Amino acid sequence: MTARTIGVTEVALRDAHQSLMATRMAMEDMVDACTDIDQAGYWSVECWGGATYDSCIRFLNEDPWRRLRTFRELMPNSRLQMLLRGQNLLGYRHYEDLVVDKFVEKSAENGMDVFRVFDALNDPRNMERAMKAVAKTGKHAQGTICYTISPLHTTEGYIKLAGQLLDMGAQSIALKDMAALLQPQPAYDIVKGIKDTYGDIQVNVHCHSTTGVTLVSLMKAIEAGADVVDTAVSSMSLGPGHNPTESLVAMLEGTGYTTDLDMERLLRIRDHFAKVRPKYAEFESATLVDTDIFSSQIPGGMLSNMESQLRAQGAGDRIRDVMAEVPLVKADAGHPPLVTPSSQIVGTQAVFNVLMGKYKVLTGEFADLMLGYYGECIGERNPEVVEIARAQTKKEPIDVRPADLLAPEWDKLVTDASQLTGADGSDEDVLTYAMFPSVAPGFFEKRDEGPKNVGKTAEQMADQAAAKSDADRAVRGPITYRVSLGGRDHSVTVERA
């Protein structure tokens, strides 16, 4: 009997470093691995979208469109894949339909092949336009189910959502488990249900590894008929990241499944990133395994964001209170999955509730979530909190697709972007301005200075530590103690370590 080949999507070039090191990896630290990645036999290579666009212009002084074109040039044999937030594109608000069309058109033109389209609330209305735009370009539209757990989320509900996405033109279905909540049996049940219901439709499964159970979940998904799974080469895996690619290959040995990946090339990719990863140690998450996520449902990136918010308020010791509050806020909002931007919105409101009192102050984003301006959730929103949101914002709840209320904005974006110093007049620059209007002007001004690598070599880290130690000594100086021995006083000076 011939083994069934399981496709693999390698995420080292995007989600792995987004999850492990705050999306800080510089392009120059990726290029030398691209030839081996291109030839290793992956179904696709995820390399763009998500938070990379933001990080490129905010921290790395790098044009994200140039990054995409470079990947296209370096990996001519690969399907390049991106993560697209539906009507949010890569920003944090909804965009008018023509902007969505333009973004997808330009992404395809610059080299993108597979568009994994998701919505933070799993509202199909917020994914339809983006998938239709992908279809117009002739590229692959992947409809995405964000996996979460609640009293309202069921296997049958996820299967039904898959059908809605297929009706809207999705060419494949992705089951996206951003918080490592997908346990083995639900993985099997959902994938098998989709396959049994809709026939030979391609199903991709994306899991993070934070809870320690999801390599088994991938195995059960494969047994249920999953066609493609996401992994990260081992030197860029685990913790809040993903399961190791080489571990998947080993797990399938002796079974009726194979990946057909080139292990020699995988090891070269592994060795490349093993040398690169230590440069970004200061951005690394301390989380290795966290089974509390099963109760808190908090993805790793969301947890670190809440911790920083609390520390800024001098309340770092309240993190457990906030973790207990998150599921309550999530329930009041109608049980949205916790993924960008809903994770930030729910998490920040939980922080506000703990520090200021329950719903004494709503963030503008949480108020909009409660009033329907991000879309529909699976559950009913708490009517008392809806009323608080209505009173605070002086806005009425809506039940239409949020983008239907947006006026055309492309022409104004073109006009505004054209007035910025350093903007080149391209549609790509207009889109960069549209995504991040407060960050783009500074990026355009400094773009000609070239990309900046925020990673540090071992020597640089040692120099930095030494400089900090010297600075501490200079500021704090030695300590002088007065000691009494045998009835006589002595003065003792001790240098600080």
Mean pLDDT: 92
Compute the number of strand runs: 12
How many helices? The count is 21
- Structural class comes to alpha/beta
Output the radius of gyration.
24 Å
What fraction of the residues are assigned to beta strands by DSSP?
5-15%
Basic shape: globular
| Largest β-sheet summary | 8 strands, parallel, barrel
Fraction of residues in helix: 40-55%
Roughly how many Å apart are the termini?
A: 67 Å
Uncertain stretches of 5 or more adjacent residues: none
Q: Within the largest sheet, what's the order of strands?
A: 2-3-4-5-6-7-8-9
Overview of the structural elements:
Helix content is 46%, strand content 12%. It has an 8-stranded parallel beta barrel with strand order 2-3-4-5-6-7-8-9, surrounded by 6 helices. The chain has a two-stranded parallel sheet with strand order 1-10. The termini are far apart. The model has no long low-confidence stretch (mean pLDDT 92). With 497 residues, it is an alpha/beta fold. The protein has 21 helices and 12 strands.
Feature tags:
alpha/beta, eight-stranded parallel β-barrel, 21 helices, 12 strands, single chain
Short description:
The chain has 497 residues and is α/β, with parallel strands linked by helices. The chain contains 21 helices and twelve strands. 47% of the residues are buried.
